[in-house]
Amino acid sequence: MTKFSRRIGMALIAGAVGLAALVPLQSFAQPAAAAQPPKPTVVLVHGAFADSSSWDGVVRGLQARHYPVIAAANPLRGPKFDAAAVASIVDSVKGPVVLVGHSYGGSVISAAASGKANVKALVFVAAFAPEAGETAIGLTGKFPGSTLGPTLAPAVPLADGGKDLYIQQDKFPAQFAADVPLGKARLMAVGQRPIAEAALNEPAEAPAWKSVPSWFVYGDRDRNIPPAAMAFMAERAKAVKTVVVKGASHVVMTSQPDAVTKVIAEAAAH
To answer: What architecture (CATH level 2) is domain 41-269?
Structure first.
């Protein structure tokens, strides 16, 4: 190679380096990935004769999927009162919410979601989805199959003149949690939260399931709410999806948390 050709080569290299210095670095970068929308917060609302710990398996499943979760303490005083408490939690969440209710908690979430633009889905887990004017007691008796009545303990009088209802502890496992290990079911019986008798007889107001997409999941061995009643409510609500878990009791979220978690995740991703 001659001196002349070496000079020409060096000049071309220098020119290329100079051009690269003039071009912004980001011109060579890959396009940034679009920001993913935040995952909705899942608010879990327990029902009568249970507490927030009944959701423990579902909470673990949702957290493994990186969903923010709140297990609300349901006062169990009446749909309107309890819905106001849950609505306050919904208002505190920045971003979309999926409301999930078990049993009587279904009545609560349907009322709590009314007028809440950030509630994107309702999930009814072995739960009531009442029409305006309906009661939990009325829906329970609409179809045969519930054996709850004879298992209730004598009502506990309250200072305000009302009464609290419990399930007799020795009858709790078979009635409420037949597919839960007996030791755990007995602990649940001791820790059960009572519901005001008036709450089960309080008529529902306009339901949110008429405007918010709904999912239903329940067991075919439920002894509290007849499976036929839940099938009726799911069909009436035009549920996006209904899952019937074979052999599951009323506390399907405790005995079959993976099945319930899957339904909630589908609703959240819808």
So the answer is: 3-Layer(aba) Sandwich (3.40)
Which letter does DSSP use for residue 101 in this model?
Answer: E
The sign one gets for the Cα dihedral 231, 104, 59, 257 is negative
SS3 7: helix
> Could you give the CA distance from residue 63 to residue 246 in angstroms, rounded to a whole number?
25
Q: Rounded to two decimals, what is the model's pTM?
A: 0.87
Using CA atoms, how far residue 129 sits from 66, 134, 163, 216, in Å, is 28, 9, 24, 10
Nearest to 139 by CA among 229, 52, 70, 19: 229
Domain ranges across the chain: 41-269
In the structure encoding, which two tokens stand for residue 156, read together?
A: 């506990």
CA 126 to chain centre: 11
SS (H, E, C) 22-75: HCCHHHHCCCCCCCCCCCCEEEEECCCCCCHHHHHHHHHHHHHCCCCEEEECCC
pLDDT, one tens digit per residue, over 19-59 is 333 344 343 444 444 567 789 999 999 999 999 999 999 99
Phi and psi at 102, nearest 5°, equal -105, 135
